[in-house]
Amino acid sequence: MIDLWFLDQSGFAPTLPIGSSWGRLGTRLVVPYEAPQGRRVNVVGALAPNDPAGPRFVFATRRAAEGRYDAAAHLAFVRRLAGAPAADARRARPCVIVLDNYAVHRSRAVADELPDLTAADIHFCFLPPYSPELNPIEAVWRQVKYQDMPDRSYPTDTALQAAVETALIARAQRLTTPTTNLPRPA
């Protein structure tokens, strides 16, 4: 047994994309545009779809004012995700984190920490370039952006961050809700 996590980042702009919408006949639907300069919200998340206790989804949000998602933030999230044990201790079972080739994931600071992470039984598995279809968390980002956030425009980064966190919490709860009690089709 291993702990298998799929990790990725996603960005949310103050005006989100619109797939389709409804409006009164003859009336043009207008969504206000909010310029994204300095008001994006970035999210790092990890999905464990095959966990024996049921699917798990963990995330952390960060506004532009709180700084970039750099190697230090990445390593802190990985350690939180994997529940890194104390120094010179190993995990109960290996933790494998599947991730893309984002520059932060391959940075010098992360490479310098690899021996310590390996010693703690935390391993990275990098996806081939340009293969988001191999990472199941990509579907979570798409669902949150297009389905879970009913408002498409946010005037402040704080309002956007609150909406993103609310949508991600709801999505995480949906992922962990068992579907065994659903009615069967007639």
Give an account of the 3D structure:
With 186 residues, the chain is of the alpha/beta class. The protein has a single domain, classed as 2-Layer Sandwich (Nucleotidyltransferase, domain 5), CATH 3.30.420.10. Helix content is 30%, strand content 19%. The protein contains four helices and five strands. The chain has helices at residues 71-82, 108-119, 137-148, 157-176, and strands at residues 3-12, 41-48, 56-63, 95-99, 122-126. It has a five-stranded mixed β-sheet, with helices on both faces. It is globular, with a radius of gyration of 19 Å. The model has no long low-confidence stretch (mean pLDDT 87).
Observed structural traits:
186 residues, alpha/beta, Nucleotidyltransferase, domain 5, 5-stranded mixed sheet, 30% helix, globular
